[in-house]
From TrEMBL:
Transmembrane segments: none annotated. This is Putative transcriptional regulator. Residues 10-62 form the HTH cro/C1-type domain. It holds the Pfam family HTH_26. InterPro entries: Cro/C1-type_HTH, Lambda_DNA-bd_dom_sf.
């Protein structure tokens, strides 16, 4: 998949644990963990907006595009 989730990097920069972020945005730790690992097929814009608001960042700070080399 050419989209990589870099949420862990932003959490480290903000010195915040995933558990704390999950509580603040009203998401289960399990669902946040799936998002962090990139094992989800999609994310709602509302969820992305809540994460960005809590981490004071832009969506591009959480996702990166790395094209497949074919």
């Amino acid at each position: 998949m050419p989209i990589t989730v870099t949420l862990d990097v932003m959490l480290a920069r903000r010195k915040m644990r995933g558990k704390e972020l999950a509580e603040r945005i009203g998401m289960t730790e399990q669902n946040l963990s799936l998002l962090r690992s990139g094992k989800v097929k999609g994310v709602r814009f509302e969820t992305l907006a809540r994460i960005c608001a809590e981490l004071d960042c832009q969506p591009a700070d959480l996702l990166s595009y790395e094209p497949d080399e074919a």
